[in-house]
Design brief:
alpha+beta, Tautomerase/MIF_sf, isomerase activity
Amino acid sequence: MPIIQVNMLEGRTVAQKRAMIAAVTDAVVGSLGVKRETVRIMINEMHAEHFALGGVSVGEQPLGKRNGHPSASATGNGALAGERHNGATVE
Protein backbone atom coordinates (compact mmCIF):
# COMPACT_ATOMS: atom_id res chain seq x y z
CA MET A 1 0.00 0.00 0.00
CA PRO A 2 1.82 3.14 -1.19
CA ILE A 3 1.48 6.15 1.09
CA ILE A 4 2.29 9.49 -0.54
CA GLN A 5 2.82 12.66 1.49
CA VAL A 6 2.49 16.01 -0.26
CA ASN A 7 3.70 19.16 1.48
CA MET A 8 2.51 22.43 -0.03
CA LEU A 9 1.81 25.99 0.93
CA GLU A 10 -1.79 26.68 1.84
CA GLY A 11 -3.97 28.53 -0.64
CA ARG A 12 -4.85 26.04 -3.35
CA THR A 13 -8.48 25.34 -4.17
CA VAL A 14 -10.28 22.09 -3.45
CA ALA A 15 -10.46 21.52 -7.21
CA GLN A 16 -6.67 21.90 -7.56
CA LYS A 17 -6.03 19.47 -4.71
CA ARG A 18 -8.48 16.95 -6.14
CA ALA A 19 -6.80 17.21 -9.56
CA MET A 20 -3.38 16.63 -7.96
CA ILE A 21 -4.72 13.63 -6.01
CA ALA A 22 -6.09 12.07 -9.21
CA ALA A 23 -2.86 12.71 -11.15
CA VAL A 24 -0.60 11.36 -8.39
CA THR A 25 -2.81 8.30 -7.96
CA ASP A 26 -2.67 7.63 -11.72
CA ALA A 27 1.13 7.98 -11.67
CA VAL A 28 1.54 5.58 -8.74
CA VAL A 29 -0.84 3.01 -10.24
CA GLY A 30 0.93 3.22 -13.60
CA SER A 31 4.48 3.16 -12.29
CA LEU A 32 4.13 0.65 -9.44
CA GLY A 33 1.36 -1.52 -10.84
CA VAL A 34 -0.70 -1.33 -7.65
CA LYS A 35 -4.46 -1.25 -7.32
CA ARG A 36 -5.96 2.24 -7.26
CA GLU A 37 -7.77 1.61 -3.98
CA THR A 38 -4.48 0.87 -2.20
CA VAL A 39 -2.97 4.30 -2.90
CA ARG A 40 -3.04 6.64 0.10
CA ILE A 41 -2.29 10.37 -0.25
CA MET A 42 -1.87 12.80 2.63
CA ILE A 43 -1.77 16.54 1.97
CA ASN A 44 0.01 18.71 4.53
CA GLU A 45 -0.70 22.38 3.97
CA MET A 46 1.80 24.78 5.50
CA HIS A 47 1.37 28.40 6.41
CA ALA A 48 3.82 30.63 4.51
CA GLU A 49 5.65 31.41 7.76
CA HIS A 50 6.34 27.70 8.29
CA PHE A 51 8.46 27.29 5.14
CA ALA A 52 11.66 29.08 4.18
CA LEU A 53 14.06 29.22 1.27
CA GLY A 54 17.58 30.53 1.71
CA GLY A 55 16.93 31.65 5.27
CA VAL A 56 13.86 33.73 4.40
CA SER A 57 10.33 32.58 5.20
CA VAL A 58 8.00 32.48 2.22
CA GLY A 59 5.68 34.74 4.23
CA GLU A 60 8.30 37.49 4.04
CA GLN A 61 8.27 37.36 0.23
CA PRO A 62 5.72 39.39 -1.74
CA LEU A 63 2.90 37.22 -3.12
CA GLY A 64 4.06 37.79 -6.70
CA LYS A 65 7.53 36.46 -5.87
CA ARG A 66 6.47 33.20 -4.19
CA ASN A 67 7.60 30.68 -6.79
CA GLY A 68 5.17 27.83 -7.21
CA HIS A 69 2.49 29.35 -4.98
CA PRO A 70 -0.93 29.77 -6.61
CA SER A 71 -0.79 33.53 -6.11
CA ALA A 72 2.63 33.89 -7.74
CA SER A 73 3.10 35.56 -11.07
CA ALA A 74 3.25 33.35 -14.16
CA THR A 75 6.88 34.28 -14.79
CA GLY A 76 8.30 32.60 -11.68
CA ASN A 77 11.70 30.92 -12.01
CA GLY A 78 10.55 28.05 -14.21
CA ALA A 79 11.00 25.47 -11.48
CA LEU A 80 8.71 22.49 -11.55
CA ALA A 81 6.90 21.36 -8.43
CA GLY A 82 8.95 18.75 -6.65
CA GLU A 83 12.31 19.95 -8.02
CA ARG A 84 15.03 20.53 -5.49
CA HIS A 85 16.81 23.89 -5.42
CA ASN A 86 19.40 24.86 -2.86
CA GLY A 87 18.42 21.86 -0.76
CA ALA A 88 14.69 22.67 -0.64
CA THR A 89 11.85 21.17 -2.61
CA VAL A 90 10.00 23.73 -4.70
CA GLU A 91 6.29 24.09 -3.99
